[in-house]
Amino acid sequence: MKKLYFVFFILFWTSLKIFSQNLNHVPLMVVLDSTQTIFGLNRVQIIISNLTDSTSVLLKGESQLFEVKMNDSTWIPIKSPMTLITHHSIRQQYSNRSKRDTIRYFVDLYSLYFNDSLSFQSIMNTGKQILFRYSIDIADPSFTNLKRIVSAPITLNIPPANQDDIAAFDYIMARKDTMMVLRYLSSDINNSTEESIPVYQYCIQHFPNSAIATMCALHYSKRLCQGYHEEQKTNQSNQLIIQANRSMIMSSNIPLLRSRARFSTRCAD
What we know:
Radius of gyration: 22 Å
Distance between the termini: 62 Å
Strand content: 15-25%
Shape: globular
Number of helices: 9
Largest sheet: 6 strands, antiparallel
Oligomer: single chain
């Protein structure tokens, strides 16, 4: 029996040792594509440094945050839907990340402007060079000690807005207080409602050269495909709408939006 307990202790201790015993880690961030729109939407990859093949770290998902520095002053948090995660226990708040794991997200300047339209207005005519960084809380294996880790800042060259960008943004801002679902336009979250469909249609029709219109095309198509499995088709009328939306999405110069097209338009295939 003593041998059994000893074996159990060794196995238990070994399993604990897979977690990094120090919190001296840094997020290493790479931006995968250049900024094509004032709304950002660059794809980014993040790994955690100083991990070996046999160690991992506990990351508190709901604490992850992107920040920008617009005027060489303070860091401004981006209130992105990525932070709106609710968990029922302490352990559910954390994910176990190893050396091989990559965090994938995108530069969500649309969410920044949605909550602070002055940031959009301050750069819409000329664009701007801004700083961008990622941070998250990590914990030790006991979940008692937390440390905030921050990536080195990356410089992003934000282009000026075109006329469709400005008109589409003004149109969204006029409706943001009565239609909060519009805050999710830049995300892949499917919170669309029947009431939001006319907004999508209007943006697609009137502001076709804006990234907002392409985001609307994605959400409109996803709404029409809601409830359909990948091998199922919607009715012919909806298929025509979705196929037109897909053409708009695939002609975009923004890789993130093009990469979302297949799933969002699946019921028109």
